[in-house]
Design goal:
There is one protein chain. It contains ten helices and five strands. The chain is mainly alpha-helical. It starts with a strand and ends with a helix.
């Protein structure tokens, strides 16, 4: 309880969007039986690297390829470790995905590396005001965590590419794993998940409203922003059309090639 840990949901949804669902948890909470956790003694950075590996499609595939009801510690223990080949890049993306509140400030401060400043997005969706991946501060602040849905999606798929490279898995093999072993995720990418021009994930209730009203010439009115109230607050979110789906396979290939050209760091 006194350390940062990587935790995962023990129940295995073998046919769902994802099977292995992991995150970093801060010191303090005691986890009940439905959640497993682990740490690397004496190395908080190694614990974060384990978390990054567990959040990848490759580790998820290694778990779901042999269907099971529970994801036990023994299952996690047999998964491959990514090592130091692309450690800095995996660390940065994993930290920016997980260090969402000041409960993770010490984790960020302990794992920070100056190489973070020189890291970059591999490409992907662009929108007005998008911050560079390496635009971070040495000490944790509210600007450290990635909050835009498209940025979090991009960081996750870049971890997929980095883990694949670290384990000697080819670009085609990585994309084959995605297309053949994660059909629910593939379906969501192609038909459910839409993003507006500001990189926000558009709720289905808002996306459906893009289909109307209809002009006299039969085209769809898409001018102006659409809004949605959060169901438990008075906050109003605005979504700016056009809404588009993103091509995960193309983004995976772009990321893989970009990181391969950079070499290990």
């Amino acid at each position: 309880r006194s350390q940062y840990r990587v935790a995962w949901r023990r129940m295995a949804a073998n046919t769902g969007e994802r099977t292995l669902i992991a995150a970093v948890v801060p010191p303090g909470p005691t986890l009940i039986q439905t959640v497993g956790s682990a740490t690397v003694p004496g190395s908080v950075a190694s614990t974060v690297l384990v978390a990054g590996a567990l959040q990848s499609l490759i580790s998820d595939f290694a778990v779901r390829v042999t269907p099971k009801a529970d994801i036990l510690f023994s299952t996690i223990q047999r998964l491959p470790y990514v090592g130091e080949g692309h450690a800095s890049s995996i660390l940065l993306r994993t930290l920016r995905l997980n260090c969402v509140t000041d409960a993770y400030a010490d984790l960020w401060n302990q794992c920070f590396r100056k190489t973070f400043f020189h890291d970059e997005w591999s490409g992907g969706v662009e929108y007005s005001g998008r911050k560079g991946l390496g635009e971070v501060t040495e000490n944790w602040s509210i600007h450290v965590p990635l909050r835009r849905a498209s940025d979090r999606r991009q960081a996750l798929l870049e971890i997929d590419a980095l883990v694949a490279l670290s384990l000697g898995i080819s670009e085609d093999e990585l994309c084959s794993v995605y297309k053949t072993q994660f059909p629910v995720l593939l379906g969501y990418d192609r038909s459910r998940d839409l993003f507006d021009i500001n990189g926000r994930l558009v709720p289905s209730s808002v996306a459906n409203r893009q289909r109307g009203p209809i002009r006299d010439d039969g085209t769809v009115q898409k001018d102006g922003s659409l809004s949605s109230h959060h169901p438990q607050s008075d906050i109003e979110y605005h979504y700016q059309p056009p809404f588009t789906s993103l091509d995960r396979e193309a983004d995976l290939r772009r990321a893989y090639r970009r990181f391969a050209s950079w070499g290990a760091k």
